[in-house]
Amino acid sequence: MAMKHPRVIVFAGAISALVFMTVLSAAFGWVATVIPRVYTHYISAALFAIFGLKMLRDGWKMDPNEGQEELEEVQHELKRREDQEEKEETLDMLEQGQAENRRKKRNAMLKVL
To answer: Where is this protein primarily located (predicted)?
Structure first.
C-alpha cells in the first residue's frame, strides 16, 4: 500500500488500526470480568465447540485436490521468490567480482553431493 498511497496515510491507518484493536481487546477483557465466571466458562466452551464443528465440517466437505492445489501454489510462489533472490544475489556478486568464486563453490558442492 505504501507504494500506491502516501506513506503518512498508510502509517496513520496502521497506527489507528492498532489503537482500535487495543481498545477493542481491552473492552472485551473488561466485559469478560463483568459477566459471572460460570457464564463465561459456558460461553467459551460453546464457542469452542461451534468453531471446532465448523472446522470439521469444512474439512469434511473440502475437495481432496483443494489442499494439493494450494500446496502447489505455495511451492510455485516460493520457487519464484527463491529464483528472484538468487538472481539479485548473483547481480550483487557480479558487481563485487565474486560470481566466479560462487560458481566454483557450487560445482564443488555438487560433486560432493
So the answer is: membrane
